[in-house]
Design goal:
Rossmann fold, seven-stranded parallel sheet, binds ligand GMT, alpha/beta, six-stranded parallel sheet, single chain, 2 domains, 13 strands
């Protein structure tokens, strides 16, 4: 199959999922064409069967705002025609589903051999729960989702939320996030032992959080939890990633007098190594449709303490792979963390369960769900 994938290339989980999906599909013999404004960050190194098409945007003094959605639609038309695509797959509805709709209608009106092209939209999270609900986007979003030839959502929660909030009766297929379990696995060797020494003393535990530091990730809650946990369990905190709340988080940890015990790592490629030296992962988000970062941690055998929002309970099983608590209940999250870190046997059990749960979301299990869905939409 020849598939055109559009995603946000540099920021957020939707781009990661879209790129990893494209890579996995290419490995399975499909031809994948990424259509975006920049090369997706995870598309590093040469992969056979993968092509990248950059959307060029011409600036003209009259256009106060870049007309990306239109330029993207035109690029989708061009790539579909000249690379003989079978399908367009838009990740994150705004504006990708709208551009794909436009591209499909243009190709239909041209009446050539691509006049029957179909497009699929994958809903990831904030496209539905936040940005899409803004009055300036809502009618266009609803329309674009409804007009998609197929729609997938990354959790049952997101499917139901879409149907309720947009009053859409369209069938939505749940295809969860996935992980390369052979890459994301706990490394326990001389290198990671040495790595661990950089962060903590032998008897200290390492608590970790990864995100793009937006307000909805509630990174300050992680700092509050750490402040309580470290009173009972000798520990250090690693914060990975960067974003709008980072400065405020650094300021807050200075105010609490614990800045020296927290490592603000910024964006990191060595995620597997960092997760391999971690003992607990925190994701206390305000909103989370799936929680890819928690899945990455679990795949490395790290139990997760998360909020109970969105799709998180579909991934993190309370009392098995970690614990869940209400948004903002840092007291309960701290209590869970202290109890788990203090109980070696239970911890071992949770760590094994976390890895087993992650295996359920392996690339091998989930990517064929997309292939099956493509076949269904194309009537094959
Ligand atoms: O909002 C983000 O953190 C980025 C966002 C995105 O769409 O790029 O992530 C969403 O998609 C991920 C991949 O499907 C999910 O794992 C995240 O849970 C989801 N984020 C939110 O719902 C906040």
């Amino acid at each position: 199959m020849k598939i055109g994938i559009t995603c946000y290339p540099t920021y957020g989980g939707s781009g990661v999922v879209a790129t990893e999906l494209g890579k996995a599909l290419a490995m399975r013999g499909h031809e994948v064409h990424f259509i975006s404004y920049a090369m997706p960050t995870r598309l590093n190194g040469f992969v056979d069967n993968i092509f990248y098409h950059e959307v060029e945007i011409n600036n003209y003094p009259l256009f106060e705002f870049p007309l990306y959605s239109i330029a993207l639609a035109s690029k989708m038309v061009e790539v579909t025609k000249f690379h003989d695509l079978d399908l367009l797959h838009a990740h994150y509805a705004i504006p990708h589903a709208t551009s794909a709709f436009l591209a499909r209608e243009i190709l239909k009106s041209e009446g050539g051999n691509k006049s029957e092209i179909k497009f699929i939209t994958t809903l990831h999270g904030t496209d539905i729960t936040l940005t899409g609900l803004e009055p300036s986007f809502l009618p266009t979003m609803k329309f674009s989702i409804q007009k998609s030839d197929g729609v997938t959502a990354v959790s049952r929660f997101l499917k139901e939320k879409t149907q309720q909030q947009y009053q859409i009766d369209k069938e939505i297929e749940v295809i969860p996030n996935f992980i390369d379990i052979n890459k994301y696995k706990r490394e326990d060797n001389e290198k990671t032992k040495c790595f661990r020494k950089n962060f903590a003393k032998n008897d200290e535990k390492i608590l970790t959080h990864t995100s793009n530091f937006r307000a909805l990730k509630r990174v300050q809650d992680v700092i509050k939890i750490f402040n309580t946990v470290k009173e009972k369990v000798d520990s250090k905190l690693i914060l990975i990633g960067d974003g709008p709340e980072r400065s405020e988080c650094e300021r807050y940890s200075r105010e609490l007098g614990i800045f020296e015990e927290i490592k603000f790592m910024g964006k990191q490629d060595a995620l597997v190594e960092l997760l391999s030296v971690s003992d607990l992962f925190f994701l206390p988000s305000q909103s989370e449709s799936f929680g890819l970062s928690a899945l990455e941690a679990m795949s490395c055998g790290v139990p997760v303490i998360s909020s109970s929002v969105g799709g998180l309970p579909e991934l993190n099983l309370h009392g098995e792979t970690g614990y869940i608590a209400e948004i903002g209940d840092v007291e309960r999250m701290s209590k869970y963390a202290i109890e788990l870190l203090a109980n070696e046997k239970r911890y071992e059990h949770f760590s094994i369960n976390a890895r087993k749960r992650a295996e359920h979301f392996s690339e091998e299990n989930i990517v064929p769900m997309y292939e099956k869905f493509y076949d269904k939409v194309l009537g094959m």
